[in-house]
Amino acid sequence: MLQRFSTIQAVKWAPQIDFSNRATFEEAQNADLPGFEIREVNPSGQRRRAAESDKYYPVTYVEPLKGNEHIVGFDLFSESGRRTAIEHAIDTGRVATTPPIRLVQENGDQAGILLIFRVNEGLNGPGVVSVALRMGTFVSGIVAPVSPILNVRLVDVGQNKELYSGFGLLSDSAAAYEDTFDFGGRHYRVETVPTALYLQQHRRWQSWGVLVAGVVSTGLFGCVVAPQHWLYAPGRDSGG
Fold it and tell me: What's the per-residue H, E or C state across 33-75?
């Protein structure tokens, strides 16, 4: 999956752990990962032992591990945006997307999102698989072929927050064309403005704006299909 979609930051497995099983679970994980404990992130961004809760969804497997070590042990249920997406995925049985978040492993300023998939059963019990996307990296890779002719901006409508902007000095300008789409329970807006180079060629550009909106939504859909094929392929343990 990571070879097919190089802009994916990480793929993670997080089992559902009840409070009564927390100590046993942490002890078992310590056999392979010394010092493992279920953690959360405080408001200042520091990692700490997770507070008592009815249930946890701690990350116990992440690929690739390099660059994502800090996410191991992090309780996805400890942060409101991730928790809401997990609950939505469990309630609907469909992929759910978090609002714009700061990924735990993020060292820069890129906004991120998680795509959440419910796993009902397996050798490792119920839990969720999540796909982490750094949206600057993800969208820039998708729109690279049209970047000479179009400036593109992607906005999470619910929070009115930019997930990606290639507008540069045009950041305060109104979009010349925009389109919207729904994905994972959230609403997104793709805005485009033709570049000076494109306008010099005196071509119609609105159709390119339509194309970009379709490409961005299709790119997200591709990140959904790949994990589902991975999870439910014949002979694959859907729990881990």
Answer: CCCCCCEEECCCCCEEECCCCCEECECCEEECCCCCHHHCCEE
Residues 6+ apart with CB under 8 A from 74: 39, 40, 41, 47, 58, 59, 104
Q: Which of 103, 104, 86 is nearest to 95 (CA)?
A: 86
List the domain boundaries for the chain: 8-136, 139-220
Per-residue pLDDT tens digits for 76-108:
999 999 999 999 999 999 999 999 998 887 878
Condensed to tens digits (0 to 9), the pLDDT of residues 134-173 reads: 999 888 888 888 788 788 889 999 999 999 988 876 655 5
Q: Does domain 8-136 have CATH number 3.30.565.10?
A: no
Lookup: tokens for 159:
């929070």
DSSP code of residue 98? P
CB 156 within 8 A of CB 99: yes
Specify whether the CB–CB gap between 14 and 128 falls below 8 A: yes
Residue 155, beta-bridge partner list: 162, 189
- Per-residue pLDDT reduced to its tens digit, 204-219: 555 555 556 666 776 7
Give the DSSP letter string of 141-177. Answer: HHHGGGTTTEEEEEEETTTTEEEEE--GGGTTSPPSE
